[in-house]
Write a structure and sequence with these properties.
CATH architecture of the domain at 7-60 and 101-154: 3-Layer(aba) Sandwich
CATH superfamily of the domain at 7-60 and 101-154: DsrEFH-like
Helix content: 25-40%
Order of helices and strands: EHEHHHEHEHE
Strand content: 15-25%
Number of helices: 6
Radius of gyration: 16 Å
Shape: globular
CATH class of the domain at 7-60 and 101-154: Alpha Beta
Distance between the termini: 27 Å
CATH topology of the domain at 7-60 and 101-154: Hypothetical Protein Ychn, Chain: A
């Protein structure tokens, strides 16, 4: 039997609904099991912790092979909003909270929420642009030091 996981560090690089929920669900599950969890938001994942975009995360319909037949219509105007609404309703039935509430809930469990310094510099973002749950803007080196001894998950 292998040693139990004691710490996970999850890298969130996508700013789409289907890109962020797996990371939030894994972080929440880790905390529920007493596992230390840290979320590191980089590149377009910053949309999830950005004050002006957190409430507007949508399903990526163009080029998303997971949508199967809907992929054909993915480029039509409004299709992303339609698919987002559809999935949000399904998640609501399963008691999966909306992204802003989920991020707050995970932060309240003691999970660390961090923004990538290189990405915030690239997109010219500062602490004032990020939601209150963000603990700090850190470098990749600081992230690796924090992640040492644990599992790293890239979503």
């Amino acid at each position: 039997m292998s040693d139990p996981i004691e710490k996970v560090s999850i890298i969130v690089s996508k700013g789409s609904l289907e890109g962020v929920y797996p990371a939030l669900i894994m972080a929440n599950g880790a905390r529920a099991e007493g596992i230390e969890a840290n979320l590191f938001f980089t590149f377009f994942g910053l949309d999830v912790i950005h004050r002006s975009t957190i409430d507007h995360i949508k399903v990526a319909t163009v080029g998303n092979p997971g949508l199967h037949l809907a992929t054909i219509a993915g480029g039509l105007p409004g299709m992303s909003s339609v698919m987002t609404h559809y999935l949000e309703k399904k998640m609501e039935k399963l008691d999966i909270p909306p992204i802003p509430e989920f991020v707050e809930m995970i932060a309240d469990t003691g999970a660390g929420i961090y923004a990538c310094k290189a990405s915030t510099d690239l997109f010219e973002l500062g602490e004032e642009d990020l939601i209150d749950q963000v603990m700090d803007i850190i470098t990749v080196g600081e992230f690796f030091a924090m992640a040492a001894g644990g599992e790293i998950i890239f979503t």
